[in-house]
């Protein structure tokens, strides 16, 4: 991993951004990584909350599917459950 501005960046991504994506854009590599780090850090708290919520919903879906395995569930019942959670 490449450490830059409090980010751990996969070398392939780092090379792609620096050697291909930024070429011809007049954006300095350091400027890009510093700005990207700022954005990542700004949105990290809300991103964590959203990922936690997604995990919670996925767990509920997994439990519901286990509980109802082999049962014939109508589309309406499935929709109602999804709206409930």
TrEMBL record:
Domain Malate synthase N-terminal, first and last residues per copy: 15-68
InterPro entries in the cross-refs: Malate_synth_sf, Malate_synthG, MS_N, MS_N_TIM-barrel_dom
GO biological process, one term: glyoxylate cycle
Position of the signal peptide: none
A Pfam entry, by short name: MS_N
Gene3D superfamilies on file: Malate synthase, domain 3
GO cellular component terms given for this protein: cytosol
GO molecular function terms noted in the UniProt entry: magnesium ion binding; malate synthase activity
Protein name: Malate synthase N-terminal domain-containing protein
Originating organism: marine metagenome
